[in-house]
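R.M. (postdoc): so does anyone remember the format we settled on? I'll just put the structure tokens first.
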């Protein structure tokens, strides 16, 4: 495992030859373990109600946005629209509100999605082992959970109210997911909330611990960069394009079998150039609003989408660059 001092030195080293060597090593490892395959998915927001006051988030409870929660019929309309584009892996999201979107509501979403998608993942509030197990039985293959930042003091300041103020409960979430038998766990930090080297070192250490204790799980890493809110008074840490590229290369070299996800938070230029360096999964034609695909509701988004290309355009780009776009890489397997 890399030391934090070594990580700092890598992030501070902008020598062109050094960066090119890092990139070439990452390319070689990627081809060795993943070939030219890139998996595609789309996010789908079920609701945006939230009980937390996270100072960096567009869904936080103090924001005067239009709050929505899809009915089952509306879920189907959204899912039909996404599935019609060719997408077969869906990531379903909610805000953090057990009262408005309880586990039973999420389960309904999962069971409904099973009629349209062979791959179903969730990004919802942290749950207990038995709750994850119930959702696994309903058809969930993977769960995304970000610690946001591993800096405890910074975490305390940024999470002003709500269940999310409990750092340790959130930190323990990947382990509870693994204990429930879920196949894939996507871990990450929100780059820009804290000093980068500290967060990444802690993330890598957390992932290494999970791999050692739960080796049967398929792990993924995500490095979403924060898009600051217009009215935010929070001080953010700048994360340059070259820093993001270094992190992707480093993650690929240190964790050769781990998938790396890059969302539409990033510009098309960055996503295209990061692909050969270790990225194995990207979102396409994303909507970050509730009802954004079929209902076309004008409610506020959680974050701005920077890469607005259609699924067809993403597929064409991948093929032109010599990649093999994959809509689903596993057959339907009952979790019951």
């Amino acid at each position: 495992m890399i030391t934090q001092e070594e990580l700092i030195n890598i992030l501070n080293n902008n020598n062109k030859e050094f960066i090119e060597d890092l990139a070439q090593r990452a390319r070689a490892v990627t081809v060795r373990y993943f070939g030219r395959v890139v998996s595609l998915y789309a996010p789908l927001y079920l609701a945006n109600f939230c009980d937390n006051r996270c100072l960096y988030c567009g869904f936080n409870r103090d924001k005067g946005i239009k709050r929505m929660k899809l009915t089952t019929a509306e879920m189907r309309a959204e899912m039909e629209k996404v599935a019609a584009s060719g997408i077969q892996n869906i990531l379903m999201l909610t805000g953090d509100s057990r009262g408005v979107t309880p586990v039973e509501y999420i389960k309904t979403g999962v069971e409904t999605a099973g009629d349209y998608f062979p791959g179903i993942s969730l990004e919802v509030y942290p749950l207990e082992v038995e709750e994850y197990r119930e959702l696994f039985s309903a058809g969930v293959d993977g769960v995304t959970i970000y610690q946001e930042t591993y800096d405890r003091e910074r975490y305390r300041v940024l999470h002003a109210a709500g269940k999310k103020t409990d750092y340790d409960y959130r930190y323990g979430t990947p382990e509870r997911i693994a204990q429930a038998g879920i196949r894939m766990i996507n871990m990450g930090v929100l780059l820009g909330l804290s000093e980068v080297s500290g967060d990444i070192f802690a993330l890598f250490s957390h992932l290494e611990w999970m791999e050692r204790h739960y080796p049967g799980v398929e792990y993924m890493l995500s490095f979403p960069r924060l898009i600051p809110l217009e009215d935010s008074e929070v001080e953010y840490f700048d994360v340059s394009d070259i820093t993001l590229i270094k992190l992707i290369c480093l993650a690929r070299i240190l964790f050769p079998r781990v998938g790396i996800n890059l969302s539409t938070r990033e510009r098309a230029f960055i996503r295209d150039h990061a692909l050969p360096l270790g990225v194995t999964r990207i979102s396409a034609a994303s909507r970050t609003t509730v009802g954004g695909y079929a209902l076309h509701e004008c409610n506020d988004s959680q974050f701005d989408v920077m890469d607005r290309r259609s699924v067809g355009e993403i597929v064409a780009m991948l093929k032109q660059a010599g990649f093999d776009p994959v809509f689903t890489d596993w057959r339907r397997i009952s979790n019951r």
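R.M.: ...and that's the designed sequence above, right after the tokens. Also worth knowing: Residues 4-294 form a domain with the TIM Barrel fold (CATH 3.20.20.70). The first strand starts at residue 37 and ends at 45.
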